[in-house]
């Protein structure tokens, strides 16, 4: 009689995928059970969008368009910047979540279990990207409700715009994970991640770089949010993109690599 075949042993890749999906479900469940942080961070870009449109919109439209006041012009200009600002705000919650895992002992428990080590970080990253995409969709729906339109964008440009947002979220999520891992508390992680909210405020999100004081223009120009915002505007509104698209890709790839190496090094460090 032939002996039954032994079941095939799972490969390293299959174990990594299985453990990563488990960690992803864990983080999404945490987000569902504790939605207050996500909602608070989501409200910030919505409030800024409504404030700038309905309080400053007419004046800003006159300045940008060079003609009469027309709020719709400023809505079109503002929404792409607010969408990228939404990603920055979501990442504060990611840094806080990672810091809580690091300081409350669950990471130490994971180290003793037979799971793929990288799955803990991958679960946080994918969960954060999913939350960023959902948040951007909700803020985008608010923008459409108050008058944002992108009638000239082709299907290919919409796909490119979505890819840009996802790549941007992925790159900055790795940075947020690194910030959370080195923070001694959730409060410190929130403070460390504040630049992710602050940077869009000094970019071209609200006013063109050319309209800023001369000494301030390099600060606004040479940072990751401005080229990403200008690329997104070009895709959705048909404005000039120029070199901004490849500058954005370089920023994203560089930040993703930096955040990944940083997070991995801290995670693999022996606990004290």
TrEMBL record:
InterPro entries: ABC2_TM, ABC2_TM_bact-type, ABC_2_transport, Nod_factor_ABC_transporter. It comes from the Bacteria. Keywords: Antibiotic resistance, Cell membrane, Membrane, Transmembrane, Transmembrane helix, Transport. Its main location: membrane. It is found in: Cell membrane; Membrane. Residues 36-270 form the ABC transmembrane type-2 domain. One of its GO terms (molecular function) is ABC-type transporter activity. GO terms for biological process: response to antibiotic. The chain crosses the membrane at residues 34-54, 74-99, 120-146, 158-182, 194-216, 245-263. Belongs to the ABC-2 integral membrane protein family. This is Transport permease protein.
